[in-house]
Amino acid sequence: MARPLEQAVAAIVCTFREYAGRCGDKHKLCQAELKELVQKELPTWTPTEFRECDYSKFMSVLDANKDGEVDFVEYVRSLACLCTYCHDYFKDCSPEPPCPQ
Q: Within a domain: residue 15?
């Protein structure tokens, strides 16, 4: 049975592959694909009042090479930043309840 971290890595890769390529390049997310991924895969972390211009700003932040799409490296960097934010937010919290094994 796969360990949680192995499952997490597989989920990251599979989620990207599920959404990328619907609008063209199967190795990149266009803004519509990114919007759908965020809305469906991070629903409780996405403000319901996010407007189209908010997605445009989000896209421009993630799109480091400014090619109008988010490639896998840019996607993973954004997830790493999200993980860092969560780690910093919860680092002083009690470890109870312990993480499931």
A: yes
More confident residue, 57 or 65: 65
In a domain, 97, yes or no: no
Which residue, 67, 18, 10, 9, is CA-closest to 40? 18
Provide the residue range defining the domain that includes 71: 4-87
Return the CATH number at 69: 1.10.238.10
pTM of the predicted structure, to 2 decimals: 0.82
CB atoms within 10 A of CB 96: 5
Mean pLDDT of 17-27: 93
- Secondary structure (DSSP) of 42-78: SGGGS-TT--HHHHHHHHHHH-TT-SSSEEHHHHHHH
Q: How many domains does the chain have?
A: 1
Residue 93, pLDDT score: 79
